[in-house]
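hey can u run this one w/ pyridoxal-5'-phosphate bound, need the structure tokens asap thx
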Amino acid sequence: MEKHNPADKIQDLQYFGEFGGVNPSISDSSTYTFLSAKTMFDTFEGNTDGCYLYSRHSSPSNLYLGQALAALENTEAANVTASGMGAITSVLLQLCQSGDEIVSSRTVYGGTYAFMKNFLVKLNIKTHFVDTTDLDKVENAITSKTKVLYCESLSNPLLEVSDIEGLSKIAKRHGLKLVIDNTFSPMVISPSILGADVTVHSLTKFINGSSDTVGGVICGSQDFIDQLRSVNDGAVMLLGPTMDSLRAASIMKNMRTLHIRMKKHSENTMFLAKAFEKDGLKVIYPGLESHPHHELIKKIHNPEYGFGGMMALDAGTLEKANELMELMQTENLGYLAVSLGFYKTLFSAPGTSTSSEIPIEEQKEMGLSEGLIRFSIGLDDNIERTYMKMKDCMKKLGIL
Ligand code: PLP
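ok here u go:
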């Protein structure tokens, strides 16, 4: 496998502001002037490099952030969007037409699941939800109408690891596009190196890392990004999930510490996962030997970034999970909140929050138990102290 250090590629990018500033100037305009009408026409047609027409089409700030994200994901190009859902919905609507089918992992983010199950059917696009960790099941679900294979590199919330290389082989054999949502594992996993055609992210999470904005990105070939931006039939151009330039500039500045943050998130999560497993709790973390896909992730991750900052543990019942989360918040160990990738630990019970769109029966079938708490572990300097305090909360509630 090609050696790829995402941080090196981002480090190698160089930008200056128009007055020599060390940060690029922010383009605070929705429209741009031209000296000649001919250049305006050519720009509209996409034939003039370095010219801007209108900020839904493109803006300097969004292009800079797109470049950094393409470097992160080792793709030719990238297009930033106003949210992760803006990225996912645009990709699927670009790749599928009425009558087409998608084979998707059954454990995907609830919004993605709802879009496929309830929204795309209105356009006569059907999704087969399967256990994508079983490659035979994936192959069996493919029909002559299938256009897309879709999954998350680390699934939400069960942290299953996708065999991206295996899925890519299947996709190539059947002429499908493999789309991977890498929101849970930037730096840790590089889907394009493993054979993904398109990588999407919710930038709202680790990449921005400060829980102050929503954002998304689509990373892929130049050809695919150009298709998305076509003024005639491009999903990004015509649906309009455009990121604001001020936000693009602030996300790019936050991205400069992503490699340091990911190492610390992973280090802290590994510490807590090991400690709570040793205490006898059921812990789900791909860095643990007990995780069913531990050997797979060891093979595919970028080892310097560990196994990621997400873990789940089972508090037994929903009542216990809720009590524990409320107590941990009172003790200032984190926040009872959805989302992930913040400096502070965030926790929620996915069955009644981020995965509540998935019917209870299906939740049970996929192993999403009601007492499961999903943790996005923060950047705590002294994780041993955090562990002791969390353990006290668990003892107080009889969970330990
Ligand atoms: N993908 C994953 C794995 C997510 O967890 C989320 C949001 O929680 C999304 C996509 C959607 O992103 P956004 O909320 O930025 O639209």
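The chain has two domains: 6-255, 259-396. anyway lmk if its weird
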